[in-house]
Amino acid sequence: MTSVHEDLCTRPATELAALLRDRQVSARELVDAHLDRIDQLNPGLNAIVTLDAEGARAAADAADAALAAGEDVGPLHGLPVAHKDTHMTGGMRTTWGSPLHADTVPARDELVVARLKAAGAIRVGKTNTPEFAAGSHTFNTLFGVTHNPYRHGLSAGGSSGGAAAALAAGLVPLAEGGDMGGSLRNPAAFNNVVGLRPTPGRVPSHPAPVGWSQMQVQGPLGRTVADVALQLSALAGPDPRVPISLGDGGASFAAALPERLDGLRVGWAPDLGGRIPVDPAITEVLGTSVRVFEELGARVDEACPDLTDAQQVFEVLRSWQFEATFGERVRRTPESFKESIRWNVEVGAKLTGADVGRAELAHTKLYERVVAWFDQYDVLLAPTTQVLPFPVEMEYPTEVAGVPQDDYLGWMRSCTIITPTGCPALSVPGGFTADGLPVGLQVIGPPRGDRRVLEVGHAFEQATGFGRRRPPLG
């Protein structure tokens, strides 16, 4: 690979977008550079599982012709993008990481894919995911496991693990994913990139089996906060088919982000108010990194909102949704689903209407307490993950800092506890352990405060430069 191509594959998407618009680089040149890098690096990573090189080249040629003809082009004009393999792509295989869908080719793009295409992004392929996106370690029987670019043999996280690994390795400048219990945040932390779980409804999901749910969201991943903001500007905005979609558009997310945080009121919760165990190596790294906020003009207190019942709410609503979505199929052919999905369905099937009702009452009180807490603080900081990237042979960590975990969700509580609050949560590179493993910092804002978490994450990113440390790849 030439140094010119390598440079194109590691530059921020915002810089590439400007080069494309100024015609200093063509969309075809950019796509070819990324396809070359995919050929070189993806066999060892297994981040991209479906590739359409010819389709991407044809789309790039069309994009170049449109720009040359003086046509209006979108904010993502010419930028290669890879889509999570749980998101339907018209005319391209979409498997959900399951042998049941090994040959499924949807007729149409779902909304998140269509919006990126409308903004000018060029579809390159699909990224690996756990079966039906269940779990935060990316492996399945169809394609195998995705490796962490920072250390082969370690997990890339999940469920958007293929997306985050592809970004970290420079296979694409933009990617997207989904998040119920951390699936945008966890892999961002493991791969030293940026992932945003937006406020529910900020990025409308359609089609969605449970359209009223606040649990599952879709959102952007990028190598920088500005790249995530650029992508969010194209993804955000109302859709009349989505009952929870927010009414305001995405234009505000494209505005310049600040580098100072003077007067910002920050709460730092290294264990979410005593609710989670955390690997001491993570606490050590983040304890040092959080001091940067004071240097940027913020006031930092150790403080956390009252998250009583947050985990119970998450577990009940997740299990109920799994049973509603997968229950009939799991009972018909249980051997077609991995054990963790069967377990979630079984738990959901045992719930009563009263159980779900009590969870929704607790959900409402939780939201009210969290909103009140944000009257006193502007953002909450916490670890994105409780553990460091672990060996790919493990399905999930069975203990955290010596504390046994009962199920495959236990080690993800740093993210799952935040999900039912309705808050936007951004994972940004938070530093590295002494032996070079990435650590993520979770920046959590009040509901609908997506712009705020981007501003805070950007200022931290610019001050520390952690995200500029690329993995040791060829």
TrEMBL record:
Family annotation (PROSITE patterns): AMIDASES (PS00571)
Matches recorded under SUPFAM superfamilies: Amidase signature (AS) enzymes
Domain Amidase residues, every copy: 29-454
Record-linked InterPro entries: Amidase, Amidase_CS, Amidase_dom, AS_sf
A GO molecular-function descriptor: catalytic activity
Top-level lineage group: Bacteria
Protein name, entry field: Amidase
The organism of origin for this protein: Modestobacter muralis
